[in-house]
Amino acid sequence: MDDGERVLVLSLGDPSVAKPILLEGMAAAVWTLLVVPMDVADLIQALNADRPVGLETDSRTVGELLSALRGAALVDTASC
Known about the structure:
Layout: E1 6-10, E2 20-24, H1 26-33, H2 40-50, H3 55-71
Antiparallel strand pairs: 1-2
Helix pairs in contact: 2-3
């Protein structure tokens, strides 16, 4: 489910223990952008095109977010 500001995702790595995860704000924007595979630098550039925030802050925040998404088996390391 995606309403533009929030995205509800479900990791199907092990369907027997799958639970929905709600992504909001920047997390939802990152999820939406990752429909197209891109590296972290391109992801940050795309986020900065829509938000008036500094690149350094985005780098740290996006890195932490990607780590959390990887930990929840929602993204593949090779895809970003």
